[in-house]
């Protein structure tokens, strides 16, 4: 009986390839199969569906209860097994292949059955920069082909280089393993040109899948849409999958491209659209009520692959609300500083400076190039990993600026080659190698350091084989990794900043100033996989750019955490809950045209922990805060209603029951650093005294909460008078050490420090009864809700102005302030009922102090213009 039932289930599965689930059940009834057996078949199918729905990765947000019909690859499939075998042949581990199988199966399960009468699905797959998104959508395409999707349109960026690279990948991984299954509308060197006879592709006699890889270019898309409209009679029964690679670029809020993509979908009665991007800021700000491409049906959060170098790994990030700062790393020590004074020598500052601009090989650029040649030589000694070696120089969008680098770079190569026997040059390169390998140990990445003596023997060949390539829209000499190992210093702009993989990228010199999150993030070609040389990559950039990327790492993590809201609240869908995007004082979330659907995101502080991490270091600014803290503590100490708990021996003194007006007076006097006041349309600026004050007043007025506060002084046990900080008579603790991340000037030229984290987890429990040692974040929240449901905590930290870093903290420097610093942390109780909301000021990013390029015409022309 079991074998008979298995045969029936196999019949059901085969029918499911040709019919939607409901129709398949009707077919079983027509075959005379009894109701109880059909229920058993449905139960087994539901078990398979549940397994896919409950996959831990990828995390998925869906609208409604989409009919998950796809249960994974089956015997007889051809496209996915061929791709899977190809991955194994290329050295993919079983775990990596399994992760890809799961994530592509989950996405496939969210698409409509290809035999449904009509559908128009819109979804978004959120990945990481250079993390294998192309491989993921190739896997989805393979599985869709195996189940009957006919037409595959891949919108591949706006540049020929990326379109060609994508076409080559898809031909290699889908077409060549099964040439009898595929027809192509585009070629390696040819974008879409309308064929004469649509019937030859979509007629009943042609059972092949049709592949079309096109640029997001108005002229090309218009030709494709017109051709498909001419073939409408053949397309009624043609299930189509549209993959929008780099879906935030050109797709959203453009005059030509966006309407043309929607026109394509309108001409395909059965179509599914999936946008793939690592920077979905613009996509998440589309007006959901408009007939546009907002991901109304599903959002998939693709898992971060193992060994992937992402924003957080390289730059670190700030702790989010509820995180223990000790658990948030500073990132790898792979970022090298370019002085602001170098910028004018490698990039024209204004349009007027472009003509006749000749770059100089500054000390930092020379160091970067020399290090690249050392890496090429060292990798040849190792003989492992990617055979290519690339360096990226990206200073400008202007093609004439790119071209101007050729002569000085080739002169540097010639001089270096001619001087390889010069003891001073050899010593310079030896010291550079020892410095860099000393800062980042090869052993931390499972590699072995290459001795300088060994790599020096490879240096002549490394220099001989190195080419200087200008890769831009006007150059003929482009990066080509298809004809043997490449060693290249690539100078470019937009053509190198989107989607295109720079194979073997180990060194980047990046000083391009941009104004938007998505543009900046996509320019980080140094993200990705570095098998065999994970210890060697370095990126040279200004300190300001490094801070911007650190902020972006925080935005990314917070955005993904916001998406988790859906996972834990089944009532939330992409149409009921908008993902919030943290803003920045010097950056836009995305281009202004793409933010027309954005609204102010009202927020609240209930249950949150707020802390300062940026400080000016000049004496006048610091002394105002020192005085504000002294007045707060003095008022708390003299208030008759206050209970004082003196644990000065432990470095902690607590005042209970401080009236809220005393706290509000302090907030009116204490100066938060402007860099922590996040301006913009999408998220409240947490460290904004005005908003915090408004929130406290609303809670007092609306709920009677936050009338009383606990004020804690948190320092070290007292040691010497010089190391102690006196807030008021008999209120003294030892100062704490908080070294800064990097030294740079703010937009006004004033020095400031970013200490990244202030509070530890246990600090948020300083006023709780009992021993809080070892409590988790959630346990602290629960205890505060029980013990102090209406009481806020304000913690003051006296930070020593010198603050020497621990020797193990390679990315830290002495604080070096002109006076001691007062850090502030606030912990707000979680309300029992509705919280009080505060609205941020709706202002655009302040770009007045940022030097941005004026040369965007090429990008706009490529997005909206002719071929």
Task: Describe the protein.
- By secondary structure, this protein is α/β, with parallel strands linked by helices.
- Helix content is 36%, strand content 16%.
- It has 26 helices and 27 strands.
- The strands form 6 sheets. The protein has an 8-stranded mixed beta sheet, sandwiched between helices. A 6-stranded parallel beta sheet has the order 10-16-14-11-13-12. The protein has a 6-stranded mixed beta sheet with strand order 17-27-26-21-20-19.
- A hairpin with a 5-residue loop joins strand 24 and strand 25.
- Helix 1 packs across helix 2 (21-30), helix 9 (218-230) packs parallel to helix 11 and helix 22 (619-638) runs antiparallel to helix 23 (660-669).
Detail the topology: elements first, then pairings.
Layout: H1 2-18, H2 21-30, H3 35-53, E1 59-62, H4 79-89, H5 94-110, E2 119-126, H6 133-146, E3 151-156, H7 160-175, E4 182-184, H8 199-202, E5 209-214, H9 218-230, H10 232-235, E6 240-245, H11 257-266, E7 270-277, E8 298-301, E9 308-309, H12 311-315, E10 335-337, H13 343-346, H14 363-382, E11 389-394, H15 399-404, H16 406-418, H17 423-439, H18 452-456, H19 459-465, E12 467-471, E13 487-492, E14 505-510, H20 517-522, E15 528-529, E16 538-541, H21 543-568, E17 609-611, E18 614-616, H22 619-638, E19 643-647, E20 652-659, H23 660-669, H24 689-703, E21 708-714, E22 724-728, E23 731-734, E24 744-745, E25 751-754, H25 777-787, E26 792-799, E27 821-827, H26 857-864
Parallel strand pairs: 2-7, 2-8, 3-5, 3-6, 4-5, 6-7, 10-16, 11-13, 11-14, 12-13, 14-16, 21-26
Antiparallel strand pairs: 1-8, 9-15, 17-27, 18-25, 19-20, 20-21, 22-23, 24-25, 26-27
Helix pairs in contact: 1-2, 5-6, 9-11, 14-19, 22-23, 23-24
